[in-house]
Design brief:
Helices cover about 40% and strands about 15% of the residues. It is an alpha/beta fold and about 375 residues long.
Length: about 375
C-alpha cells in the first residue's frame, strides 16, 4: 500500500529523544501504526514493538520492574507500544523507562483517550508530549493526490470519508466502511466496564447522525432511544473520547438572549456517519446535504488545528426565540473572534446577523461556500 504522508510525522520527528514519551491518540484504523513505522524506518533494529492487544504483552508489562525492562529492551533505543490503553498501570510502566532508562525513547499509541489519558495522566505528568492523528485531512490529500484531483473528489469525501483504507481502495468504499464502522470503531466503547449494551450505543449514534448540524437535546435523544439523559450524555462523551464524534458548544459573551448551554455534535469522518445510517446516496438527492457540508468543513478545520500548540476555541452561536438567529462556526483566539456562516449552495444569499455584528463589532466575519473554502482548510 502506498504511504500517504501525514503532517504530524515532521512534528513527531522533532520531539524524538527529548527525554519524554510521545503519546499518540486517534481512532482505530486511522494510520497511527503506519505513521510510527514510517517515522522510525531509519532506526530499523533499534526499535522494540509491542502490542497492547496481545495477551502476552499485557501480562509482561503489567507490574513490570526496571530490571525486566532492561532485559526486554536490551540495546534498543526506541520502545513502541500500540494500543497501550489495554495494559493495566501502563502509565507507571512507561514512567520507569523514562526515569530509569532516559536514553530510550518511548512511543505509545491509543485509540481510546478515555482509558489511556486516565492511565498516564498522573504517572507521566511532565514526562510526555501528546498528539492526535485523525483520518486523512483535505490538506494531506491535496499533497498526495494533487490539488485539482482532490477538489474534484469533494463529494466522494463527503460520502465516504477519508480513512486511509478507504482512500487506498476506490470503488470498494461502502463495504469497507460498513466493516470499519461495525467491527473496529466501537470496539473500545464496548470493552469499557459496564458498557455492554451495544444496541443502545448504536441507537444513540444513529439518532445523533440524523440530527447533523442541529442542536442536540439529551432529553429528546433519551426519549428516542428509550433511556435516561445521563446515559445518553455518558455514551456521547465516550464516542467523543474514542474519536467518532466531537462536540461544538454555544458561544455566549454579551447578549442576554444568547443561548448558553447549546450543543451540536459532528462526526470526525462523514463516511462513518453515512455507514451508521446506511445512506451513501449522491448529495443531489439528499435532504441532509447542507448538514454534511457543514460537518465536512468544521471537521477539516479541526484537523488543521488539532496538533498546533495553541489552537483556537471553537463554537457556534445562536439567539433564543423569537429571533432564532444563528452562525454556524466561530473561533476565539488571542482575544480575537472570527465567525463563519456555512452554505452548501454558493448562490444562496447569506448574511451575518445584524444582532451578532452589533454585539461583536470587532469580529471578523465570512460566508463559506464550495467556491471559497480553501483558505479555511489549507495551512497558511
Amino acid at each position: 500500500m502506498t504511504y500517504i504522508s501525514r503532517h504530524l510525522e515532521s512534528i513527531l520527528a522533532k520531539r524524538l529523544f527529548q527525554g519524554k514519551a510521545l503519546i499518540l491518540y486517534g481512532p482505530r484504523q486511522c494510520g497511527k501504526t503506519t505513521l510510527v513505522k514510517h517515522l522510525l524506518a531509519q532506526y530499523d533494529d533499534a526499535v522494540l514493538w509491542m502490542n497492547g492487544d496481545n495477551p502476552d504483552t499485557k501480562k509482561i508489562l503489567t507490574g513490570i520492574t526496571t530490571a525486566t525492562w532492561k532485559r526486554i529492551i536490551g540495546s534498543r533505543k526506541i520502545v513502541v507500544i500500540d494500543e497501550a490503553q489495554r495494559i493495566e498501570n501502563i502509565g507507571l510502566s512507561l514512567k520507569l523507562v523514562i526515569d530509569e532508562l532516559s536514553s530510550v525513547q518511548v512511543i505509545a499509541t491509543g485509540s481510546s483517550s478515555f482509558e489511556l489519558m486516565n492511565k498516564t495522566a498522573e504517572p507521566l505528568t511532565g514526562r510526555k508530549f501528546e498528539f492526535r492523528l485523525l483520518p486523512l485531512s483535505y490538506s494531506e490529500l491535496c499533497d498526495f493526490r494533487g490539488y485539482l484531483d482532490e477538489t474534484q473528489d469533494r463529494e466522494r469525501r463527503m460520502l465516504y470519508g477519508s480513512y486511509p483504507d478507504i482512500i487506498s481502495n476506490p470503488g470498494d468504499e461502502q463495504s469497507r466502511l460498513e466493516e470499519l464502522a461495525g467491527s473496529y470503531l466501537f470496539k473500545d466503547i464496548y470493552a469499557l466496564d459496564g458498557l455492554k449494551k451495544s444496541s443502545l450505543v448504536e441507537k444513540i449514534i444513529s439518532a445523533v447522525a440524523m440530527q447533523l448540524g442541529s442542536e442536540i437535546s439529551f432529553n429528546e435523544l433519551a426519549g428516542l432511544v428509550g433511556t435516561d439523559n445521563h446515559t445518553v450524555e455518558r455514551y456521547i462523551d465516550l464516542l467523543s473520547k474514542c474519536y467518532i464524534v466531537f462536540p461544538l458548544k454555544a458561544y455566549s459573551r454579551n447578549l442576554r438572549n444568547e443561548i448558553k448551554k447549546g450543543l451540536k455534535i459532528y462526526f470526525y469522518d462523514l463516511g462513518i456517519r453515512n455507514a451508521v445510517i446506511n445512506n451513501f446516496s449522491p448529495l443531489s438527492s439528499r435532504a441532509d446535504a447542507g448538514g454534511m457540508w457543514e460537518n465536512y468543513l468544521i471537521a477539516e478545520r479541526l484537523k488543521r488545528h488539532i496538533n498546533q500548540p495553541f489552537h483556537p476555541h471553537s463554537f457556534f452561536w445562536r439567539t433564543c426565540a423569537p429571533l432564532n438567529q444563528e452562525i454556524d462556526y466561530l473561533e476565539e483566539a488571542d482575544g480575537k473572534l472570527h465567525a463563519w456562516e456555512i452554505k452548501s449552495n454558493p448562490h444562496t444569499k447569506a448574511k451575518i446577523p445584524l444582532t451578532f455584528r452589533k454585539a461583536y463589532p470587532d469580529a471578523q466575519t465570512e460566508v463559506l461556500t464550495p467556491d471559497n473554502y480553501d483558505d479555511f482548510l489549507l495551512p497558511q
